């Protein structure tokens, strides 16, 4: 059975913050009647595809995230609902799909524009948790009411690192000795403004909050959002040494596929706006980027991932030191993936696996791993520069397809809270409900192994994604069209066997897709075409199959 979903999907179902903590803590402790409640540490990474050791990447050094995976349940096939920051984050933090939040861009606040939908942290807050936000959790700006959805979601104002404001400024030292706003921006930390970087500051703040939480009797929900590997690739330059250019390969499919409909292509305009990319004078929309520069982009992406890994390592090591690992659920995920030259594309902004597939893992003490013994450390800090560190295998993993929109009911269930009900259709008037599936059955390891009725039928599982376009051909705003400019919506369904995407007319005034107005289609079979390079939508041999998927 497919999950309840908005009308579009139903048609396609086949086809200084610390100072204020004291008072809040006191009130929270007095109000909280829960005993033995599990804390939650939710780690959200920006633009991270599953380029991690625990997902089988042999090049990337991510020992601390791999170590977390070794004690977790890892989902091999988790997918975002839209491959761009604000819509994805609002979707999984509210448990609703973009067609319900009505956010496809960055320019509206769902509580005003769609409905007064509850969020994951709001739900935990209403159930006696102290909820805290550090770094990029909600996308900042209009889409979270310039407040990260405060005061609804958080017990006190969210923390943003002060050095965040320098991310897109001229802080990258070029070969000419001058400062530039580049895409590739390895830095010497002592030379950057404030002598630090945003993710380092976020880790330090999160550690301070954990230390404060240790002294309280209140359960906490701490969300930590990391910026890297989001562009620009501004990271400590020493991480480049982990990835010599001679070891960096190109994407396995760096050419634009012949059968790719123009509407499906993203022209990576945000990449082109960086000074070092502008200097390459690359043609629009298809490029390509010179081969040597492609390698440098991939090098900096991987280096940024290893830098991120150290921050996760310091955070989890502190959790261990404070003896909080035995009563804290840890969730690690990303808002979406990122293309590194596959299909001749860079960045996100599409429906392909490389942009919609994300890492997703849950550590649940006593369930995904035995409770740590007295003095035992689950998460000692691991240095990615230590070549003797052996790759750790995931503790448990599942190949079942899942969606980020399932995060809300799953976290609620794991924490012992009442799981919000499935949303009716429509659900704009319902404040608390969810459109994702509760994944709790995946954590009943013994039951699943012994009870065939608890096992999923892989061919019944579907992950939905979508992406808007302003025109049939790539243009300056194809990557991030404003709502008023959206003319076409690409609805995509991913199963264990295939990815099927249909691009249809879309009315932004009525938020209505017209499935009789078909602009293009894509069909890729996973077994024979795992990289999604050979679109057979118009192939006469498979035309009948494609038509059978139509609403």
UniProtKB/TrEMBL annotation:
InterPro entries, per the entry: Alkaline_phosphatase_core_sf, IDS, Sulfatase_CS, Sulfatase_N
Record-linked Gene3D superfamilies: Alkaline Phosphatase, subunit A
Pfam families noted in UniProt: Sulfatase
Signal peptide per UniProt: 1-27
SUPFAM superfamilies: Alkaline phosphatase-like (SSF53649)
Record's catalysed reaction(s): Hydrolysis of the 2-sulfate groups of the L-iduronate 2-sulfate units of dermatan sulfate, heparan sulfate and heparin
PROSITE patterns in the cross-refs: SULFATASE_1 (PS00523), SULFATASE_2 (PS00149)
Keyword set, alphabetical order: Calcium, Disulfide bond, Glycoprotein, Hydrolase, Lysosome, Metal-binding, Signal, Zymogen
Domain Sulfatase N-terminal positions: 39-416
Predominant place of localization: other
GO-annotated biological processes: dermatan sulfate proteoglycan catabolic process; glycosaminoglycan catabolic process; heparan sulfate proteoglycan catabolic process
Localization annotation: Lysosome
Molecular function terms, GO-annotated: calcium ion binding; iduronate-2-sulfatase activity
Family: Belongs to the sulfatase family.
PANTHER family named among the record's database cross-references: IDURONATE 2-SULFATASE
Function: Lysosomal enzyme involved in the degradation pathway of dermatan sulfate and heparan sulfate.
Subunit structure: Monomer. The 58-kDa mature form is composed of two chains resulting from proteolitic processing, the 42-kDa chain and the 14-kDa chain that remain stably associated and form the 58-kDa intermediate form which is enzymatically active.
Protein name, per record: Iduronate 2-sulfatase
Organism: Urocitellus parryii (Arctic ground squirrel)
Organism lineage: Eukaryota, Metazoa, Chordata, Craniata, Vertebrata
């Amino acid at each position: 059975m497919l999950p309840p979903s908005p009308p579009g999907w139903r048609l396609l179902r086949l086809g200084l913050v610390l100072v204020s903590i004291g008072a809040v803590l006191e009130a929270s402790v007095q109000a909280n009647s829960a005993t033995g409640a599990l804390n939650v540490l939710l780690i959200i990474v920006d633009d991270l595809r599953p380029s991690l050791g625990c997902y089988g990447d042999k090049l990337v050094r991510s020992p601390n995230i791999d170590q977390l995976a070794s004690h977790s349940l890892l989902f091999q096939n988790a997918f975002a609902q839209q491959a761009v920051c604000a819509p994805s984050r609002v979707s999984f933090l509210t448990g609703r799909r973009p067609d319900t939040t009505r956010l496809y861009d960055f320019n509206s606040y769902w509580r005003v524009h769609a409905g007064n939908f509850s969020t994951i942290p709001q739900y935990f807050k209403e159930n006696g948790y102290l909820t805290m936000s550090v770094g990029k959790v909600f996308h900042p700006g209009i889409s979270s009411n310039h407040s990260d959805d405060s005061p609804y979601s958080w017990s006190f104002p969210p923390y943003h690192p002060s050095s965040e404001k320098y991310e897109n400024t001229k802080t990258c030292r070029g070969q000419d000795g001058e400062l530039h706003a580049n895409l590739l921006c390895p830095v010497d930390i002592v030379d950057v403004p404030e002598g630090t970087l945003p993710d380092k500051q976020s880790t330090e703040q999160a550690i301070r909050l954990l230390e404060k939480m240790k002294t309280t009797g209140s359960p906490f929900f701490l969300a930590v959002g990391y910026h890297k590997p989001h562009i620009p690739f501004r990271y400590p330059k020493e991480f480049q040494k982990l990835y010599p250019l001679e070891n960096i390969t190109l994407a396995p499919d760096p050419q634009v596929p012949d059968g790719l409909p123009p509407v499906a292509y993203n022209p990576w305009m945000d990449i082109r706006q960086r000074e070092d990319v502008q200097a390459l004078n690359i043609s629009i929309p298809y490029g390509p980027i010179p081969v040597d520069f492609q390698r440098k982009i991939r090098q900096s992406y991987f280096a940024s991932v290893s830098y991120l890994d150290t921050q996760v390592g310091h955070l989890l090591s502190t959790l261990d030191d404070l003896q909080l690992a035995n009563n804290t659920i840890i969730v690690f995920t990303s808002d979406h993936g990122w293309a590194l030259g596959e299909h001749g594309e860079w960045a996100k902004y599409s429906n392909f696996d490389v942009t919609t597939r994300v890492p997703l893992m849950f550590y649940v003490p006593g369930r995904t791993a035995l409770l740590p013994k007295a003095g035992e450390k689950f998460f000692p800090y691991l240095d990615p520069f230590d070549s003797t560190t052996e790759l750790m295998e995931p503790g448990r993993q599942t190949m079942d397809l899942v969606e980020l929109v399932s995060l809300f009911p799953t976290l609620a269930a794991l924490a012992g809270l009442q799981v919000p009900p499935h949303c009716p259709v429509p659900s704009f008037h319902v404040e608390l409900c969810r459109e994702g599936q509760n994944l709790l059955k995946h954590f009943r390891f013994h039951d699943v192994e012994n009870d065939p009725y608890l096992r999923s039928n892989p061919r019944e599982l579907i992950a939905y994604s979508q992406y808007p376009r302003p025109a049939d051909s790539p243009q300056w705003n194809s990557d991030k069209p404003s709502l008023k400019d959206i003319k076409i919506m690409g609805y995509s369904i991913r199963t264990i066997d295939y990815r099927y995407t249909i691009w249809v007319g879309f009315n932004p005034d009525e938020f209505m897709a017209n499935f009789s107005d078909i602009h293009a289609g894509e069909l890729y079979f996973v077994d024979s075409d795992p990289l999604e390079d050979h679109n057979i939508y118009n192939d006469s041999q498979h035309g009948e199959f494609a038509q059978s998927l139509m609403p």
